[in-house]
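Fold this: cellulose synthase (UDP-forming)
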Amino acid sequence: GVLLNLTDAYEPLSRIIPISKNKLTPYRAVIIMRLVVLGLFFHYRITNPVDSAFGLWLTSVICEIWFGFSWILDQFPKWCPVNRETYVDRLIARYGDGEDSGLAPVDFFVSTVDPLKEPPLITANTVLSILAVDYPVEKISCYVSDDGAAMLTFESLAETAEFARRWVPFCKKFSIEPRTPEFYFSQKIDYLKDKIHPSFVKERRAMKRDYEEFKVRINALVAKAQKTPEEGWVMQDGTPWPGNNSRDHPGMIQVFLGETGARDYDGNELPRLVYVSREKRPGYQHHKKAGAMNALVRVSAVLTNAPYILNLDCDHYVNNSKAVREAMCFMMDPSVGRDVCYVQFPQRFDGIDRSDRYANRNVVFFDVNMKGLDGIQGPVYVGTGCCFYRQALYGYGPPSLPALPKSSACSFCCCCCPKKKVEKTEKEMHRDSRREDLESAIFNLREIDSKCTNYTTTSMSGPCLSPR
């Protein structure tokens, strides 16, 4: 067994599975046939002008050529799609598991704006699925961005943190899937089947009862928030809520789990859970998701600074508890990890009819187009369910920085020590400018760090890769 583990540790953590020729050849034949027909069509259209309406004919031919060109561009990525397979067991054999694991930390970003349009219960389920992922707890941090500065989001997140103390150990003890309570309890399956643990039935019933009580508390908060008091919201200590004006308020950061020492009901450590609402000032157009993500990047760099970032929308949840490990099979693989910028997971949707008559599952996009783009090393980022390499977002990583020259007397007195004049190459000038940018970024992070103490308070399997 030891020899097998050592062997697995040096094996690749993932591999590409080409699509079978029996499937690709007919599809490629259809593409070629369509190209031939398209060419014959354009030949006919161009060689048979309509003299009585030449302008209209010319306009229609130009539009048809443009549409045909767009179609050709859409077909090329589908020419060579690929599937990818991960080996989570090899990842564990190489980096270990548990407290002494060498797995890299991951920061989860969840973004939300209006809790009345994006129900807090859905956001809570997303957060709970993150806190319960199958990954070392000290390596997981969840940051929730509240771009609406809503007290309802803050209070519901506090309730979520308390419920997580019961939900997380329950999921890990019985290997629950999916690890979001709303969808787990709504499954119409025989939960008594294949469950060996004798206390499972009793604990599941108790957990379902606790979740129903949790839903009642969240819904009560939502009902309370339907009408805003004239004087604005007030916190428990009597001070006004800083986010009463959602477009003019200071930055707010609150650590609910992790650093506060909160543990689950079994006495085990829980992942970090951090509430963040970025500063807003009138006159600035900073009310979009990209700005909120940038704020989370800066805040997380100060608090945890995990080398990898996985972002989710508030209405998406992790339906595979090992999804983070699968992403690490690409990110932490010495042979391919250095060339990977991000791993994009496909989105899977619940509550849609099985026949998908309205194409709401985006099957063609995720299972055909994205795999085709992956075959030419260019899958696109779809805005959620994506694991980023933090260094790729920064554009310049400290580990690759050359050592800065040490200061000496000669550097301040040009006359005492003659120096040979050396012309800087364009590459060196670019490197120096990037180093200045990095030093400025580090200074800004330190400024944020000094201010932190003054603050008030989407389905994931079958990833696609993108090169840096």
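The chain has two domains: 20-80, 86-389. The chain has a mean pLDDT of 81.
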